[in-house]
């Protein structure tokens, strides 16, 4: 039985899925299975995934039900003690699983996550902490109230923790991962941060996460449903607007002088 089950939701990603799967196949940690859940793709995504040709990769097909349903199906099909997530257009560095599993062994945490390197469409690179830390308990929840610190494709989590939190809620179409991480923290799970940038996140202008207004609205709704305060999220948004206004004001002064 493999130690790690890699869950990959797949929908119309025939251009990217082979490269994503190759980044999994190339892992220095080799005791894994990959479950690709084709969520009713209308292109050749499933055929391309099968064409990678590694016996550890299994393609499961279902009628289109959304990314949360696809990830839940992958969790149900998995057998590993640990479940790693990667989206069908993202990439891992070769030592990603090995590094995070070692950190999980040292920390006795329930999940690991890390920074992501952005690539693809025009974007602004994010800054991440350079030291390891733990998100847990009231302090971990407090830190998550202002923003989602945990990138989906960077996560490795205990299978039993995901099942205890009942996985992703299919009715949440945007920020579904934020909802799950909060529920895991509320149930007592601990997340450890690996400062190594081992995940590459493909920026696609038409992607769900590109719509920041929808993302913020969904995050506010999630916090209300979990009976958590929303003011930290709103404060961060207003601070960003203030920073933008100041930047524009400085630019106007420079051009007028």
Question: What do you see in this structure?
Answer:
With 257 residues, the chain is of the alpha/beta class. It has one domain (4-226): Alpha-Beta Complex (Spore Coat Polysaccharide Biosynthesis Protein SpsA, Chain A). It is 41% helix and 19% strand. It is built from nine helices and eleven strands. It has helices spanning 17-25, 45-50, 67-77, 96-107, 137-146, 159-164, 176-186, 212-225, 231-256, and strands at 4-10, 32-39, 57-62, 82-85, 91-92, 111-113, 116-120, 134-135, 156-158, 191-193, 199-203. Strands 3-2-1-4-9-6-10-8 form an eight-stranded mixed β-sheet, sandwiched between helices. The chain has a three-stranded mixed β-sheet with strand order 5-11-7. Helix 1 (17-25) links the parallel strand 1 and strand 2 (32-39). The chain is globular. The chain starts with a strand and ends with a helix. The model has no long low-confidence stretch (mean pLDDT 90).
């Amino acid at each position: 039985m493999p130690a790690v089950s890699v869950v990959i939701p797949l929908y119309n990603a025939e251009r990217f899925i082979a490269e994503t799967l190759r980044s999994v196949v190339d892992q220095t940690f080799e005791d894994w299975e990959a479950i690709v859940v084709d969520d009713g793709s209308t292109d050749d995504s499933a055929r391309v995934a099968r064409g990678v040709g590694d016996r550890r990769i299994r393609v499961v097909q279902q009628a289109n039900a959304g990314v949360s349903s696809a990830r839940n199906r992958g969790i149900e099909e998995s057998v590993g003690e640990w479940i790693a997530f990667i989206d069908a257009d993202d990439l891992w560095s070769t030592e990603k699983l090995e590094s995070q599993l070692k950190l999980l062994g040292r920390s006795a945490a329930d999940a690991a996550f890390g920074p992501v390197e952005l690539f693809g469409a025009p974007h602004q690179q994010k800054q991440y902490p350079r030291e390891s830390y733990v998100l847990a308990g009231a302090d971990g929840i407090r830190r998550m109230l202002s923003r989602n610190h945990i990138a989906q494709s960077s996560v490795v989590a205990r299978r039993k923790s995901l099942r205890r939190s009942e996985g992703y809620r299919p009715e949440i179409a945007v920020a579904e991962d934020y909802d799950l991480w909060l529920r895991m923290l509320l149930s007592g799970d601990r997340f450890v941060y690996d400062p190594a940038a081992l995940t590459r996140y493909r920026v696609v202008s038409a992607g769900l996460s590109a719509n920041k207004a929808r993302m913020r609205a969904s995050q506010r709704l999630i916090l209300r449903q979990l009976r958590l305060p929303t003011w930290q999220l709103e404060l961060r948004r207003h601070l960003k607007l203030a920073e933008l206004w100041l930047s524009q004001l400085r630019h106007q002064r420079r051009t007028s002088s």
